[in-house]
Amino acid sequence: MNKWILILVALTAIAQAASEGPLSPTAATDEGEWTSETNVFASDDARASDPGTTSHILRAYTFGFAIPAGATINGFLASIEGFGVEPNPERREIEVALGTSGYTPTGSWKLDTLSFDPSEIYQDLGSSSDLWGGTWSATDVNSAEFSVLVRQAADGTIGVNRVDHIRVTITYTPAGSTVPSRRRIEIQRLLDGG
């Protein structure tokens, strides 16, 4: 019986998720009023800044992911380090999305509130099982064009915000890491004495 339990455990220790990151971008651009956008590459107190007059997008990309070909992407955790200079929380709101190129998100935007100056902390968005409303492949996330997009929340209460660092962790399941369910049923039947 112990031999069969060991076989079952060995064959059903499947779909163990792997992760890569957190990785930081090595390229950044903006579509309007952000300044010093390349300051988001590291947590070093040098910050990208939005003057708070409009809701332009800061795009951070070229993360250097190397997810194995054929892997299933399970989720993304994006962390934004920064703060807002306005005491009103609504004026410190940002929206964050992921994209495969340019300033167009793949999926949906997430809303969060930056901490108040001078406190600067990472705001974590997403999780190891959150696909941000998009459909992703290893090719998508390994591309130099895979992006994190950040903008002031477009709610009419835009404030002055600073972003120090952007980083991303991707959770995935390698291709071929599952045991066919028929084989698991056969092993279970043997364990049950059938």
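the 2nd protein, sequnce then structure:
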Amino acid sequence: MPTIGDYSFPPELYYEPGNHVWARPDGEVVTIGLDTLGVAALGDLAYIVLKPVGAEVRHGEAAGTFEAAKMVGDLFTPVSGVITAHNEAALRDPSLVNRDPYGAGWLAKITPADWAYDAAQLVQGVEIEYWAEGEVERYRS
């Protein structure tokens, strides 16, 4: 697993390069969440609101909002489609995202409209390490 400083980036995931949201295809759905660098940049999450189950979302547009120690902002989705599930545990206790962003801290599941198209827009495979190094350097400066 690429690890840059304190930040890990599991190689089986796909990453939205500008928003630090990851995507993991799981059969007919894609699970999304925040990566470790995104979580570090935000600080402790206090509140997360997602569009309702059944809502359509578009790649690069807001699927919800969050409030964290360092900022308030939008959660941008890395995939277009329909939200099919929320992680109710993470919505009740946003600190779960801080503690386990790639596991129990996932945020939503989306049935993708065109996963192949969206996946081609994301950082994946051997690109992850190069992208992550640049992002960590940018974050530190």
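The two ends are 24 Å apart (CA to CA). The longest helix spans residues 127-140.
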